[in-house]
Design brief:
The chain is 34% helix and 27% strand. It has 288 residues and is α+β, with helices and mostly antiparallel strands. Keywords: FAD, Flavoprotein, Oxidoreductase. It comes from Natronorubrum thiooxidans. This is Carbon-monoxide dehydrogenase medium subunit.
């Protein structure tokens, strides 16, 4: 299929992009657009105008800023996966980036577009939630920050406003922390049927802090609070991790998206299995 007709604009700055979004109701931003353009071709989305962000300077860096790892919105998945800075301070993000789509998608798609588009099936949300990240956005009312815990509200639904532009992802730099991302890949699409991000701090014997999040066939990406509660303050033992991962099966059927390939029962099983794998990895606890 072909996309409906649309107007095309090329922004030279973030402020110009915000103005263009305000001037053209229903307009969408164009960056890598590996999520948007396929949906336009199938008729699932039909924006009357596209605002191209690729000429905007200052959105393609990965750097330390004010105690955070700051990732510009136009950084590609491939750049994330290959970044030594990301691998050192936010390995879950590098793991997830390396799992996205295929080589073409990884070299074209961007982190800002991925998160703002709100596709619940993608890899990054679980990693960003587990890392305690946030998005910097600019809109008609100025700049603000959106915590990842408040970002994902549904499938293709986020807290980013219709006239707001994502400028950066921020991940707090925290000492003695580790993180990882594991997924069960859909063999047809490459999307995660279930993907799990995990972040933890320990003193070598006790789990002091932990964040666990899931993406894939869920209604929307989310933190697994029951798993986290079962781990914090507990000892670094295999039985503790197995029992905590079982808490992931407490999600109800309504917390998964309908899928003829994967029932909620199957997805709950995958969620428990991959939660345990991610936790064993991030906590350094062997499977046996």
């Amino acid at each position: 299929m072909y996309a409906n007709d649309f107007e095309y604009y090329r922004a030279e700055s973030v402020d110009e992009a915000v103005d263009l979004l305000g001037d053209h109701e229903g307009a969408e931003l164009l960056a890598g657009s590996h999520g948007l353009l396929p949906r336009m071709r199938t008729g699932e989305e039909a924006p009357p105008a596209l605002v191209d962000m690729n000429a905007v300077d200052g959105l393609s860096s990965i750097e330390h800023i004010d105690g955070d790892l700051s990732v510009g919105a136009l950084v590609t998945h491939a750049e994330l996966a290959e970044s030594e800075l990301v691998r050192e301070h936010a390995p879950a993000l590098a793991d997830a980036a390396g799992e996205v789509g295929d080589i073409q998608v990884r070299n074209g798609g961007t982190i800002g577009g991925n998160l703002a588009h709100g596709d619940a099936r993608t890899d990054h949300p679980a990693a960003v939630l587990a890392l305690g990240g946030s998005l910097d956005v600019t809109g008609p009312d100025g700049d603000r920050s959106i915590d990842a815990a408040d970002l994902f509200t549904g499938h293709f639904e986020t807290a980013v406003g219709e006239q707001e532009v994502v400028t950066a992802l921020r991940v707090p730099l925290e000492d003695d922390a580790s993180s990882t991302y594991h997924k069960h890949r859909n063999p047809l699409s490459g999307y995660p049927l279930i993907g799990v991000g995990a972040w933890a701090q320990t003193d070598g014997e006790t789990i002091e802090r932990v964040r666990v999040a899931a993406t894939g066939n869920l209604a929307h990406p989310k933190r697994l609070a029951a798993v986290e509660d079962a781990l914090e303050g507990e000892s670094l033992e295999a039985d503790t991790i197995t029992a905590a991962a079982e808490q992931a099966t407490s999600l109800g059927d309504d917390e998964f998206r309908p899928d003829v390939q994967a029932s909620p029962t199957y997805c709950r099983h995958l969620l428990s299995v991959y939660t345990e794998r991610a936790l064993r990895d991030v906590l350094g606890v062997d499977g046996e």
